[in-house]
Amino acid sequence: MIKSLFARIDSKREELVSFTQELVRIPTINPPGEDYLKCAELLGNRLAKSGFSLLYERAKNTPGDSERYPRHNVIARKEGKTQSGPCVHFNGHLDVVVPGNGWTIDPFEGLVNDGKIYGRGTCDMKGGLATAVIAMEAILEEGIDFPGVIEISGTVDEETGGYGGVAFLAEKGVFSKPRVDHVIIPEPLNVDRVCLGHRGAWWAEVETFGRIAHGSMPFLGDSAIRHMSAFLELLESQLFPALEKKHTRMPVVPEGARKSSLNLQAVHGGEAESYDGLPSPCVADSCRLIMDRRFLIEEDIEEVKAEVTDLLDELADSRSNFRYQIRDIMEFLPTMTDADAPVVKAVSASILNILGKTPEHVISPGTYDQKHIARIGHLHDCIAYGPGILDLAHQPDEYIVIDDMVAAAKVMAASTLKLLGVNI
Ligand SMILES: [Zn+2]
After folding, report:
1. Domain residue limits, the chain
2. pLDDT digits (tens, 9 = 90+) for 331-351
3. Alpha carbon of 126 to ligand 1 centroid (Å)
4. Which CATH number fits domain 2-198+334-420: 3.30.300.20, 3.10.20.880, 3.60.20.10, 3.40.630.10?
5. Could you report the per-residue pLDDT of 259-304, keeping only the tens digit for each?
6. 173 C-alpha vs ligand 1 centroid, how far in Å?
7. Neighbours of 14 (CB within 10 A)
8. 127 C-alpha to center of ligand 1: Å?
9. Ion ligand 1, residues whose Cβ is below 5 A away
10. Of residues 52, 88, 6, the one with CA closest to residue 419
11. What predicted TM-score, i.e. pTM, was given to this entire model?
């Protein structure tokens, strides 16, 4: 049975390429969230032809949702002939990031060259989603009788936090037992690796305050930028060295991310940047810093926050007129699926059988939709596994290797059957 299934997948290679191209040609750029319905319908219409029933869910009133940019998700469900059994769910995000500069080809053409498909979203992650679709179609076309359910969802907004996508659906129970048992997210973590989860993230905005005055007499005012620079100095002298010392048992890739990290994402002080013309002589009365702190499973989020607020309070005590405000923007806890979890074992065994190598278990430095499945859905049998090459995500001239997609389709198909309890 497995030989014939794999031969079927090989024979669907051209379909896999063309479906990926079709997905890439819909430029679902987020923000702002372009063409979500069109992309969700492309996926839904294709799966309906294989007998999947469809549910479309618009995430009304989630960040970014509007009549111009509605957040449309699709969930496709196919029950086996014998109804009872577990549910294996593949979830892919439909959105892509802006192409950015540096492309040598059209980012939305889906050019095929030298065994690769090029374009924004090929690697992250329309290629992975197409791979899951082809793998499940092959199972159905082979007429394999499976107990339980296969689901495939196409969701929005992963690149901006996933609130209108997986988080929204998880709140509705789409990613919880008993509806779903095992989840595979075909994010680009490389064809021969299993991604167990991700580090945590805390985003916050720190604002320092001053008092406006004439710039020729700054001593009559109070510069919020100088207050911020005092805070930045403390980050340099105290927090950054402390973060360097924190190491994790999480197998994060690349290895440089096996410690805590902090990115100072943006600083804005004084006159707004959008002004047109010459600057006016004013002392800055406000300065804002956006911080992106990534933390480890060994760290407690309250301690992570206290490391920052302690420094701010230290300045409030020692520096005259230092006033600040800190505002949480978003926070996600680290998550790491157990290496003995069924989905990890099934996919790892399939990689070994099909690619002939023991897969590396890795952790992603950045978060992805697994956070919502763990936190809201309380479902912990979840991994990321997909054919894209991690380093190419969000880069110019992004591509995916077609051979990797075919191999990953076999891994996905074999793993699904194993999780559904079909003897292969
Ligand atoms: Zn992605």
Report:
1. 2-198+334-420, 200-332
2. 999 999 999 999 999 999 999
3. 9
4. 3.40.630.10
5. 999 999 999 999 988 878 899 999 999 999 999 999 999 999 999 9
6. 22
7. 9
8. 11
9. 124-125, 187
10. 88
11. 0.92
